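okkk here we go again. third time trying to get the guanosine-5'-diphosphate bound version out, last two times i messed up the smiles copy paste (missing a bracket lol). double checked this time i swear
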Amino acid sequence: MYLEKIVIIPTYNEKENIEKIIGAVMHLQLNFHVLIIDDDSPDGTAVIVKSLMPRYAGQLFLEQRKGKLGLGTAYIHGFKWAIDKGYHFIFEMDADFSHNPNDLERLYAACKSGAGVAVGSRYVKGGAVANWPANRILLSRGASLYTRIITWMPVKDPTAGFVCYTKEVLEAINLDGIEFVGYAFQIEMKFAAWKLGFKIVEVPITFIDREFGASKMNKGIVKEGILGVLKLRWHSLFKNYRKRVTNTGFSNKVNFQETEVLLEGK
Ligand SMILES: Nc1nc2c(ncn2[C@@H]2O[C@H](COP(=O)(O)OP(=O)(O)O)[C@@H](O)[C@H]2O)c(=O)[nH]1
Ligand SMILES: [Mg+2]
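finally!!
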């Protein structure tokens, strides 16, 4: 079977949103599959996902990790899973409706017509942010400007977490070489794709603040972002960053069944 599109949604305590967001993607009826990466949410998010799996058999998948390990490693886990299964268009999306599932189709279209990475962007013409508190807008705008000044990467919304990657891009990147886990993770993924020569296109979206549940943003994530961007630039100038993030053929291959057997044997 040709597996085309999968939306990876990382979750930590999203019980108010999870059923609705999965329903909204399925409702599109555009054959988007959904992979939830749950970090053992204490609120039982994974239990809700499991209860929905029969309804969306063959379209909804769940990977559970043992504890809160961060957004970045959740996505890396999901990317490897999706590559392993053979998906061609691999999406990142939040569970909290900040990203409108109706925009998935436009991200897909951008990749279909030649982009390696399509970024759902708040800061290009036509993009917007709704309801976010002023301090979050300032932080996000500041992070974008800072990233552009330090790295010169031509992306207006480098911290965006609503993205479509083609399989070719994710296969070209050594995913184990991606270092960061928070906002810096989003920046680094785009930076790596750019450094490896892929085309990044920004598609305007309206980002809406979450109505339900709580943000997991914290000071550590901001600090990682500030230092992380400097580190990326430093490494790309003096330490052959490209080499570190180039997939040499082995790094992204994980046999998930084998991992499970290994874990069980422990
Ligand atoms: N699996 C996993 N998901 C996470 C983690 N931290 C945040 N998320 C999810 O990542 C998405 C974005 O997080 P959110 O708290 O909304 O960040 P914000 O939009 O920057 O305030 C949501 O779907 C969260 O549930 C984590 O450590 N592990
Ligand atoms: Mg959010």
